[in-house]
């Protein structure tokens, strides 16, 4: 995925004018900006590019929201970051779409440098798909790895439609084709 497309897709979300709120598009209640057990996921599909952007409270990923104080906490953080870098363990894409992971970026503020009461972990996954028309759904398997994660509010922006909804361990699939 080219840098121009990545910035273009990111701009769709950050620009505000194209951003859709879950409250406008979904019967589900929109969660607070930082609520334990709840994450947000932005999905953009443009041409052969697929971008997933996940934001989740650190407490749901590592069990704490501060710089690691002990060796055990450091190990927890390292293990969680390793898991988040392994997109194929977190996201299931239809094989016929031929999507290849191009870039993974995971960010956190648990290094003690930022002075925030609530730490989040953000992860983005950029794919290039040979047959994007065959990409009908995305199944999130990250619920299996992070048990305290209860639901994910998602927004999708695709060529065919825009929408929003909520995912859970019982309903982990986003339908992409409308």
Describe the structure.
This protein is of the alpha+beta class and 178 residues long. The chain is built from four helices and nine strands; from the N terminus they run ααββααβββββββ. It has one domain (3-18, 36-175). A six-stranded mixed β-sheet has the order 4-5-2-1-7-8, sandwiched between helices. A three-stranded antiparallel β-sheet has the order 3-6-9, with no helix packed on it.
Structure, briefly:
By secondary structure, the protein is an alpha+beta fold. Helix content is 20%, strand content 34%.
Compressed to H and E, one letter per element, the order equals: HHEEHHEEEEEEE
The strands making up the biggest β-sheet line up spatially as 4-5-2-1-7-8
First CA to last CA: what distance?
A: 24 Å
Instruction: Compute the number of helices.
Output: 4
Domain module tally: 1
Output the structural class.
alpha+beta
Portion in strands: 25-35%
Total beta strand runs: 9
Question: Which regions are unreliable across 5 or more consecutive residues at pLDDT < 50?
Answer: 1-32
Major sheet: size, sense and barrel closure? 6 strands, mixed
Average residue pLDDT: 81
Radius of gyration: 16 Å
The share of residues in helices is 10-25%
Shape: elongated
């Amino acid at each position: 995925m080219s840098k121009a497309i990545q910035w273009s897709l990111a701009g769709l979300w950050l620009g505000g004018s194209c951003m859709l709120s879950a409250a406008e598009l979904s019967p589900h209640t929109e969660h607070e900006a930082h609520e334990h057990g709840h994450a947000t996921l932005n999905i953009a599909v443009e041409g052969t590019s697929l971008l997933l952007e996940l934001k989740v409270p650190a407490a749901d990923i590592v069990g704490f929201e501060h710089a690691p104080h002990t060796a055990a906490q450091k190990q927890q953080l390292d293990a969680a970051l390793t898991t988040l870098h392994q997109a194929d363990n977190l996201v299931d894409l239809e094989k016929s779409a031929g999507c290849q992971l191009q870039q993974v970026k995971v960010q956190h503020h648990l290094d003690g440098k930022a002075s925030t009461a609530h730490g989040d972990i953000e992860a983005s996954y950029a794919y290039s798909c040979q047959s994007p028309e065959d990409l009908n759904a995305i199944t999130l398997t990250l619920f299996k790895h992070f048990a305290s994660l209860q639901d994910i509010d998602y927004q999708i922006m695709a060529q065919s439609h825009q929408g929003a909804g909520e995912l859970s361990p019982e309903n982990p699939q986003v339908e992409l084709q409308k």
